[in-house]
User: What shape does this take?
Amino acid sequence: MSLRPIKAKKIYEMIAEQITDEIKNGQLQAGDRLDSVQQLATKYQVGRSAIREALSALRAVGLIEIRQGEGSFVKKIEHDLAKMILPSVDLLEKKDLKQLFEIRKMIETGAAKIAAEKRTEEDLERFEQVLQEMRQALGDGKLGEIADIQFHQAIVKATKNEMLQSLLETISETMKAAMQEARMTYLYGDQEKLTALYNEHKKIYEAIKERNEEKAFQSMMDHILGVEKSLFIP
Assistant: This one.
């Protein structure tokens, strides 16, 4: 029998787990403000850098939000379904990313199809604005990343389904931190891939604009598969 090596937990992971437990058992409620970084460092007797890493991990999985100049606050998880898919605060491994991509394929392709049916003129204006920002950001990886996220958020918003919006927001927050470096390395560092990404999003938009549900579904599937391949996920 082969034994798997035991993974030693980092300090920030242990702190993040303790805060997560406080949220789960009700000690911390939605909307509650967490102690300052210095106060938490004193409480857990660790350095401030470990606290910052723990807060970043909690933010990545959608448990807290960090407001500039105000502090960190516990987020409200709207639906039990969103809770079910929240992973641990450990850094996501390749198998975790693969599973998250599988979820995206199931959810976002359906969302694109529904958006093609229910989209409004206001939705189209939102898509056009984001696409314009994406085109202008072709040479700026960071701005391109923001526009990319906004495009996918616009699709879900166009479905007029609040539960779906909440669920996808949770998935996106979880993926964001883990994928950021990979996206910058494999996607945004290559002008050809940048242009291809823009064209994929434009194709999805055109299908939604035409109210072509099947085309919207397939265009989204092609896009997600392409990103998955670029990230070397087999």
Notes: The radius of gyration is 19 Å. The chain has two domains: 11-74, 81-232. Residues 81-232 form a domain with the Four Helix Bundle (Hemerythrin (Met), subunit A) fold (CATH 1.20.120.530).
